[in-house]
Amino acid sequence: MKTFKKTLLAAGLLTATSMAHAGYDIKIDDNSKITFGGYLQGDVRYVDGHVNSYLGDFWIGNASEDPDGVQTTNFSVASSRLNTKYTNGDVTGFVEIDFYTNEGNEVLTNSIQPRLRHAFIKYKNWTVGQTWSTFMNTSSIAESVDFGGPLVATAFVRQTQIRYTHGGFQFAIENPESYGGDTSQDSIPDVVGKYTFKGDWGNVAVSAVARQLNTTGGETESAFGYGVSGRINTFGKDDLRFAFHGGSSGRYVGAAASTDLVGEEVEDATSIMVSYRHFWTDTLRSNLYYGNTETDVSDRDRTHWGVNVFQQINKQLSVGVEIGNYEVADLDIDSDYGQFSVKYVL
């Protein structure tokens, strides 16, 4: 180990969903190095209403109803994550864990088990392993204190895949899963394609996914979903982020807001997400976001909006405050929430 230096990935400092926010590089030789990164985050979250948030930290599309109502405060460090990247010439290996598993005993120890997020190998144009689905455009995800923001209307899937990349074009076969159907008969991989247009103005990605789904009644059904998403630079350091998804996108969009199958029928859904980030100063910024998903078979209608403020104390340390609302219109229930976080990027 001849040199040791700290490198900061500036873009990663500004979004809670990037793979690696920062890294400590250990150079092995002229062709090899190891990078250690991640972040530590502490959250305090208050929820008031008739919808429970997932593990007390964020909302997902099938958030459950509490008929008696819920008023709860939850302290958590589960969103903290650690990652390691190994680079040797054209070969890169990456692994990352966080702590979103079933939380332990809150009476005494509050123990939490680690959970695998990413584990993949890259060689030139090829990626093999578990990481974000090729269907996603991670740069379009809203910046939020509430982990992933409006996941109810966001493409959000990590899974094992084989991906080929050439310029702005990506093609992959990915792990199949007939959500709501007979998963034991899933034998044909999901096929995903995406093209990303990039420039000084930002980026726009057009994506599509084709799948064979297996119903519980022993039938097979074809499904096709599509999306257009991006991040557009506006004024100064501000940006506009957006996503529109339609067709039979199923489990790929909305964090379980819709299933692939409802009985013997393929579920279609329409999802819209928009977010605007504004820098008040070089160190103070805000985000306003909105997301909605509606389905055509189960008649679900789920909406999440939020507004937040982040203060960047220094390159490593930030604090954030967010208020928002999650609504399940098809059940005529909702919940308000407030969240505070402190984040230290390694």
Question: What is shown here, in short?
Answer:
The protein has 346 residues and is mainly β. The chain is 0% helix and 58% strand.
Task: Compile the SSE list and pairings.
Blueprint: E1 4-8, E2 22-29, E3 32-51, E4 65-76, E5 81-88, E6 91-98, E7 115-123, E8 126-132, E9 158-166, E10 169-174, E11 190-199, E12 202-214, E13 220-233, E14 239-247, E15 261-262, E16 265-266, E17 269-279, E18 284-295, E19 301-312, E20 317-328, E21 333-345
Antiparallel strand pairs: 1-2, 2-3, 3-4, 3-5, 3-21, 5-6, 6-7, 7-8, 8-9, 9-10, 10-11, 11-12, 12-13, 13-14, 14-17, 15-16, 17-18, 18-19, 19-20, 20-21
pLDDT averaged residue by residue: 91
From the N-terminal CA to the C-terminal CA, the straight-line distance is 20 Å
Strand order of the largest sheet: 3-5-6-7-8-9-10-11-12-13-14-17-18-19-20-21
Main β-sheet: number of strands, strand sense, barrel status? 16 strands, antiparallel, barrel
- Estimate the global geometry from the Cα principal axes: globular
Q: Using the CA coordinates, give the radius of gyration.
A: 20 Å
Overall SS class: mainly beta
Order of helices and strands: EEEEEEEEEEEEEEEEEEEEE
Low-confidence stretches: 1-20
Helix content: under 10%
The total of helices stands at 0
